[in-house]
Amino acid sequence: MIYTVTFNPALDYVVRVDHFALGEVNRTEQERIYYGGKGLNVSAVLSTLGYGNTALGFVAGFTGDEIERGVKGLGFRSDFIRVEKGLSRINVKLKSQEETEINGMGPEITGEDVTQLFEKLDRLTAGDVLVLSGSIPKSINDDIYERIMESLDGRGVRIVVDATKDLLINVLPYHPFLIKPNNHELGEMFGVTLHGPEEIIDYGKRLQKKGARNVLISMAGDGAILITEEEEVFRMGVPKGTVKNSVGAGDSMVAGFIAGYLENGSFEHALRLGSAAGSASAFSEGLAGKEDIMRLYEKLSKEGF
Ligand SMILES: Nc1ncnc2c1ncn2[C@@H]1O[C@H](COP(=O)(O)OP(=O)(O)O)[C@@H](O)[C@H]1O
Ligand SMILES: O=P(O)(O)OC[C@H]1O[C@](O)(COP(=O)(O)O)[C@@H](O)[C@@H]1O
């Protein structure tokens, strides 16, 4: 079974504004609402690619009701924990001359709520895949990902972590199967700005030395680099296309990678399917559909990436 955990699901409010002006009244040209949060996006794309999965996480308030209702139509199972205080987030994604995001902080999650999550995770067994993805609400201690990994240590569960800074660094001693920082996040973890693939590979390998098994570094329009536990390094470019909305591209990449790896155990295939899913979502208004992903997969294969 595949499980995803989203501590902080969101409604993503994506608005397009022509020439956004700070401090002025701006009017939208287009507005859309998507069900978001990294784990939920991973769940949605996995299900698009034919991999059934269960999304775990916390929801609160009327926005939480809507998330719980809406994701029922996305093809995966959900088993959320309802929390009493606060609201699930509305994350604002402003598309104009530049892309700007305001991600909310999320509801108040108590120790009891967290215990409920641990009870659900206690069902996981050897061969299961667990995706821990995204930020955590302020009310939770930032050692939560490590505590989850510690509780599952030795059970043969493959754990994928897509998070930033300490949330990610602290899980490395538990040997996550895959981590996916982007190049900026990778630099941020070491307090440096990375220039070019050599530096990115060097710093990616440092995360491996700290315990990560496979490190996938995404670089938006510049593609991705994968450093595997078999000491191979793969680079993948991106197909040509018009970017419509890159929110969720990273999550789509994680989902594509997992689907590809589960299919035949090949890291190269996983990277290609992950890259195709990432670009296909960047080229779509919302998350990509299967046809688009497979079309870009073929393109990446033909172009020899
Ligand atoms: N502008 C783009 N053009 C083509 N592909 C893209 C673009 N942005 C993202 N992608 C694809 O999606 C992957 C993940 O995107 P990225 O923006 O690096 O992740 P994140 O959202 O986690 O920062 C990239 O490695 C690439 O394959
Ligand atoms: O949990 P965080 O880090 O605040 O991120 C949440 C946001 O990330 C997203 O999952 C998109 O993530 P990516 O663009 O990295 O794939 C949005 O749907 C959501 O608003």
Write the layout of secondary structure elements.
Elements: E1 2-6, E2 10-16, E3 30-36, H1 38-48, E4 54-59, H2 61-70, E5 77-82, E6 89-95, E7 99-102, H3 111-121, E8 129-133, H4 144-152, E9 158-162, H5 165-169, E10 178-179, H6 183-190, H7 196-209, E11 214-218, E12 224-227, E13 233-236, H8 249-264, H9 267-282, H10 290-302
Parallel strand pairs: 1-4, 1-8, 2-6, 4-5, 8-9, 9-10, 10-11
Antiparallel strand pairs: 2-3, 6-7, 11-12, 12-13
Helix pairs in contact: 1-8, 8-9, 9-10
The chain binds adenosine-5'-diphosphate and 1,6-di-O-phosphono-beta-D-fructofuranose.
1,6-di-O-phosphono-beta-D-fructofuranose binds near residues 8, 36, 38 and 249.
Q: What report would you give on this structure?
A:
- With 305 residues, the protein is α/β, with parallel strands linked by helices.
- It has a single domain, classed as UDP-N-acetylmuramoyl-L-alanine:D-glutamate ligase.
- It contains 10 helices and 13 strands.
- It has helices at residues 38-48, 61-70, 111-121, 144-152, 165-169, 183-190, 196-209, 249-264, 267-282, 290-302, and strands spanning 2-6, 10-16, 30-36, 54-59, 77-82, 89-95, 99-102, 129-133, 158-162, 178-179, 214-218, 224-227, 233-236.
- A 9-stranded mixed sheet has the order 5-4-1-8-9-10-11-12-13, with helices on both faces.
- Helix 1 packs across helix 8.
- The two termini are 31 Å apart.
- The model has no long low-confidence stretch (mean pLDDT 96).
- It binds adenosine-5'-diphosphate and 1,6-di-O-phosphono-beta-D-fructofuranose.
- The site of 1,6-di-O-phosphono-beta-D-fructofuranose has 16 residues, from strand 2, helix 1 and helix 8.
- Pathway: Carbohydrate metabolism; D-tagatose 6-phosphate degradation; D-glyceraldehyde 3-phosphate and glycerone phosphate from D-tagatose 6-phosphate: step 1/2.
- GO terms for molecular function: 1-phosphofructokinase activity; ATP binding; tagatose-6-phosphate kinase activity.
- Its EC number is 2.7.1.144.
- Catalyzes the ATP-dependent phosphorylation of fructose-l-phosphate to fructose-l,6-bisphosphate.
- This is Tagatose-6-phosphate kinase.
